[in-house]
Amino acid sequence: MFNRLEASYPFGVYAQQAQLEVAYAYYKSQDQAQALAAVERFIKLHPNHPSVDYMYYLRGLISFNDQIGLLNFVYEQDPAERDPKATREAFAAFKALVDKFPESKYTPDAIDRMKYLINAMAAYEVYVARYYYRRGAYLAAANRAMDAVREYSDSPAIEEALWIMARSYDKLGNVALRDDAMRVFKRNFPNSKFLDEGAPKPDRKWWKFWAAS
């Protein structure tokens, strides 16, 4: 119905509303490709529309839901081969909303979702670092953990990332880097549970970063 309305009145107010409704309808039906195409088209055609901030927000929601779909990945698949692209795309989409429309009513929720996504991306990096460590790929583990520390320094996952770095450098016989990592670790997490537990834990789903360990 909305597509027919737009075809009949391609430049009218009703057609613009129809374009909004089409994008939302595709989103609700979980047709992500069509939803994103409709959103991008609306933003391009109507950059000054009063509801264009909603379309930026909807673009983030579409990718955000795709990211949540990653939670159902097959556990036996090599996690190092997975790239949570949708997570990064969702973050970029919400950031565009926050940057362009800081006063939008959708911005507070977008900021909350961005915080969640940062933690999710950090937890994913640590998950992969742990995967490498458990398989004896200590250099890869250290490098992946270091990436997490550099990119997501405020995430709770950094505690384990630093621990994996220290353990990996120890396995590699690099005493200087091990001691550096351990010094930073103990300064920031003096009461860490990892000090008592030793080696990184068995693999657990990276997206359960909020769950009790």
From TrEMBL:
- Subcellular location as annotated: Cell outer membrane
Q: Which Gene3D superfamilies does the annotation name?
A: Tetratricopeptide repeat domain (1.25.40.10)
Q: Which Pfam families match?
A: YfiO
Q: What is its main location?
A: membrane
The Outer membrane lipoprotein BamD-like domain extends over: 2-180
Q: Which residues cross the membrane?
A: none
Extent of the TPR repeats: 16-49
**Which UniProt keywords are given for this protein, alphabetically ordered?**
Cell outer membrane, Membrane, Signal, TPR repeat
Q: Which GO terms describe its biological process?
A: Gram-negative-bacterium-type cell outer membrane assembly; protein insertion into membrane
Q: Which SUPFAM superfamilies match?
A: TPR-like (SSF48452)
Against NCBIfam families, the record matches this protein to: OM_YfiO
Note the subunit structure: Part of the Bam complex.
The entry sums up its family as follows:
Belongs to the BamD family.
Physiological role: Part of the outer membrane protein assembly complex, which is involved in assembly and insertion of beta-barrel proteins into the outer membrane.
This chain belongs to the protein called Outer membrane protein assembly factor BamD
Q: Which organism is it from?
A: Pseudoduganella umbonata
**Lineage of producing organism:** Bacteria, Pseudomonadati, Pseudomonadota, Betaproteobacteria, Burkholderiales
